[in-house]
Predict the 3D structure of the following.
Amino acid sequence: MSLLDLTPVVPVVVIEDAGTAVPLARALVAGGLPVIEITLRTPAALEAVRRIAAEVPDAVVGAGTVRTADDVTAALGAGARFLVSPGTTPSLLAAMVSSGVPYLPGVATATEAMTLAEQGVREMKFFPAESAGGVSYLKALSGPLPDVRFCPTGGITPANAPSYLALANVGCVGGSWVTPAVLLAAGDYPRIEKLAAEAACLRTSP
Ligand code: 3PG
């Protein structure tokens, strides 16, 4: 099964303290969102991936903000089970293709999507979704590129997520709203679980 079809929402998480990673992942799994993207933006990110991979077997933890081949190597070493990037470079794509795990390279235009499709990639992150054209842009792409599917990320909210999820070429959406920094800092995992449970119900079409 494709990464895009596992859950309607992939939480995009910024971890400042690796000690929060395991309880956070447990809360997301309990709320119904087992696919978790840890962004490689903080010093704690790789340790967070490592701990979730080791201690939360029901989570599918991956790395986001993957920008280089070295990032791919580090993410795999930590136990990442998928890779997500904001954009795509030739060397990054080559590393993703040979990683052996599912990957969602980032695109924001028809040309970028076509360039990846030419190389056999059919599933991509659409980023930054709201700024790059949003629902209407993705809907327009489905005509000429019916075989390409996306995970839009960037500016997705509980209010606009259902419109994205209703598109034929969208499998899931990504977003940071499920794991707000303030709740993580406060260790408010029950509230995060509740946000996850609400997000898990957002899909409006089968
Ligand atoms: C990101 O990579 O930062 C994601 O796109 C998250 O975007 P959001 O904070 O707008 O959900």
In short: The longest strand covers residues 9-13. Strands lie at 9-13, 35-39, 60-64, 83-84, 103-104, 106-107, 123-126, 149-152, 173-175. Residues 189-200 form the longest helix (12 residues). The chain has one domain: 3-200.
